[in-house]
Write a structure and sequence with these properties.
The chain has one helix spanning 2-5; strands at residues 8-16, 19-28, 32-39, 42-43, 45-51, 57-64, 67-75, 81-85, 98-100, 107-108. It has 109 residues and is mainly beta.
């Protein structure tokens, strides 16, 4: 159905009038899991998403009305991280993005 077409396996939590409110959980087809707080169906607040299989964090960000805002961290394949302030669409763009190598010491700015 519709969720699978965007890569989502399931969304669970408390629904009020068909809208997710309060604590909820989103599980993607590739094993990513996000648990957090929803207001009017949108992610709100600080979230850490994890891999269902490894338990490792893969994304850390604050969300407002379902869009990442401010400084964010996204784990890359191989263990490195992207870090920077995301744009108005929640994307890593611009010149102020840093790649942190898997040793978590060495950075490319």
């Amino acid at each position: 159905g519709r969720l699978e077409s965007i890569g989502v396996r399931s969304i669970s939590g408390f629904y009020s009038a068909g809208v997710l409110e309060g604590g909820g959980r989103v599980e993607w087809m590739d094993g990513r899991v996000l648990e957090g707080y929803f207001i009017n169906g949108y992610l709100e607040g600080l979230f850490t998403a994890k891999s269902k299989y490894s338990g490792k964090d893969f994304y850390v960000a604050e969300f407002q009305r379902g869009v990442a805002v401010g400084p964010c961290w996204r784990r890359q394949e191989g263990g490195g991280w992207l870090h920077g302030v995301v744009d108005k669409e929640g994307q890593f763009t611009g010149e102020d993005i840093m790649y942190i190598y898997p040793d978590l010491v060495t950075c490319l700015v």
